[in-house]
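Tokens in:
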């Protein structure tokens, strides 16, 4: 893993080293939730059903280094994929930087506070159920907040 450069998050995604790429994630956990896609329309709806590896209280992966081996369809977000994943939330740092937008003001890289994602109402911590307990996904469709109620969207 490489060193983190000063204000690396302002660089184009293609310029980031592996450590910087990983550090860009705000840890909201929304990419670890199941989605419902309707074949006839292509519409995608979010659910509150978490991957079996997501700790539902902290929104952190229980085995991040080995997640692909344990959950083969786990998405490993890469530079090549970031523009092709239509369900990444508006708040996602990868999506925002791919669109040449700044990080949201609450992002921990700007605030120094890993809990700011929770305070902004963006994290799924404590708000989801494991796929091991959930039942049909259609019973768990939700709309997640974008954090704009409590925080300004643009970075300072």
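Residues out:
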């Amino acid at each position: 893993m490489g060193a983190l450069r000063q204000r690396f998050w302002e660089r184009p995604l293609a310029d980031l080293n592996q450590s910087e790429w990983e550090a860009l994630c705000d840890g909201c956990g929304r990419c670890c939730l199941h989605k419902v896609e309707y074949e006839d329309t292509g519409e995608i709806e979010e659910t509150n059903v978490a991957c079996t590896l997501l700790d539902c209280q902290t929104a952190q992966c229980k085995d991040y280094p080995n997640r692909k081996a344990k959950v083969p369809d786990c998405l490993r977000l890469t530079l090549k994929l970031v523009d092709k994943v239509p369900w990444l939330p508006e708040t996602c740092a990868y999506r925002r930087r791919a669109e040449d937008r700044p990080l949201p003001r609450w992002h921990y890289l700007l605030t120094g506070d890993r809990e700011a994602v929770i305070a902004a109402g963006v994290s799924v911590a404590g708000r989801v159920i494991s796929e091991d307990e959930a039942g049909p996904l259609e019973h768990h469709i939700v709309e997640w907040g974008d954090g704009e109620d409590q925080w300004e969207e643009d970075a300072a």
